[in-house]
Amino acid sequence: MKNTTRINRILGLALASLALVGGLSSVAFAQRALDKAPDDLTGIDVTEHLGDFVPEDIKIVNEAGDTVLLGEMLHHDKPIILTLGYYSCPMLCNLVFNGLSNSVAQLKWNAANEFDMLTVSISPTETAELAKAKKKNYLEDFEKNSGKKFDPAGWTFAVAEGDQSRALADAVGFGYRYDSSTQQYAHPAVTIILTPEGMVSRYLYGIDHTRQNLKLALLEASEGKYGTTVDRIILYCFQYDPDAKGYVLFASNVMKLGGAMTVLAFGFFFMVMWLRKRAKRGGASGANSSGANAITSR
C-alpha cells in the first residue's frame, strides 16, 4: 500500500512537471508570436516624438489651392490639433475625423479662437479640390449636429507632395504604408497636439476622445494660457498617463493642493476669530470710555 502511494505521488509530480513545462512553452510561443508583428502591419505604428518640433519649411497646399509653408500656421499663440490621413479613405480616416469633430463640439472653446486644426493628406494623388469638398462636408455636419457655428479658418484641410507629407509624418512619428493590393493606406488612428511653436506636445490615440482629454491636452500645449482658474487647477491635478492613454488623477498633486487648501482654510478661520475678538475688545473699550465720561460729567 505504501509503495502504491509513493508511486502515485511520483507520477503526480511528473505529470505536474510536464504540465508546467508545457505551459511555459506555450507562453513563450505566444510571446514570440506577439513580438513578431504580421508583415502587413510592419511600420504601421506611432513612434512618439514628444518635445520635437515639426519642420517649418514643409510645403502644403490648403483647400483654397494656396501653397503655404507649415511655419506660416505656427506662432499664432494657439495650439494646433494635427491629424494625418487621406480623404478618399473608406473607413478609418473618416472615423478619426468624425471622432475629432464630435470631441471639439463638446468644448466651450472654439477653433480659430483658442486653437487651430490642421488635417494633411498622406496621399500625394489627392487634390486641393478634394480637400475643399471634405472640409465643406465636415463643417456642415459639425454645425448641423452641434448647433454651433464653426469658423472656417479654424480647420485647414491640406494636401502635399509625397516627400512633404512623408517628412511631416516622420517628424511626428506617424508610420504608414501604401498597400498596392487594396490601393489603400494602412495607418494608425491618432490625433497629435502641437504647441503654438510647433512642438509635439501630446498624442491622443483612437477614434474618439473625451472632452476632458482633449481639453487638458490643449490646455497643456498652450501652457495654461487658456481656460479658467478651475481649468488650470484641474490640469494641475491631472497628468497624462501613457499606459492609460489619457489624463488621470495625480495623487501627489491632489495631496499638495488639499494641504494648501487646508492651510488656507485654517488661516481664514483664525483671521475671522481674531477680527471678532478685536471687535469685542473695541466695543468693550468704547463702553468703558462712555461710562467714564458719564461719571466725569456728573
CATH superfamily caption of the largest domain: Glutaredoxin
Low-pLDDT sequence parts: 10-37, 227-232, 256-261, 294-298
The percent range for strand residues is: 15-25%
Spatial sequence of strands, sheet with the most strands: 2-1-5-4-3-8-9
As for the CATH topology of the largest domain, it is Glutaredoxin
Mean pLDDT: 77
Major beta sheet summary: 7 strands, mixed
Helix count, DSSP H or I runs of 4 or more residues? 7
Number of domains: 2
- How is the quaternary structure best described? single chain
Structural class: alpha+beta
Query: What's the overall geometry?
Result: elongated
User: What is the rounded Rg?
Assistant: 31 Å
What share of residues is helical? 40-55%
CATH architecture of the largest domain: 3-Layer(aba) Sandwich
Please describe what this structure looks like.
- By secondary structure, the chain is α+β, with helices and mostly antiparallel strands.
- It has two domains: 59-247, Glutaredoxin (3-Layer(aba) Sandwich), CATH 3.40.30; 250-282.
- The protein contains seven helices and eleven strands.
- The chain has a seven-stranded mixed β-sheet, with helices on both faces. It has a two-stranded antiparallel sheet with strand order 6-7.
- A hairpin with a 4-residue loop joins β6 (177-179) and β7 (184-186).
- The N and C termini lie far apart (122 Å).
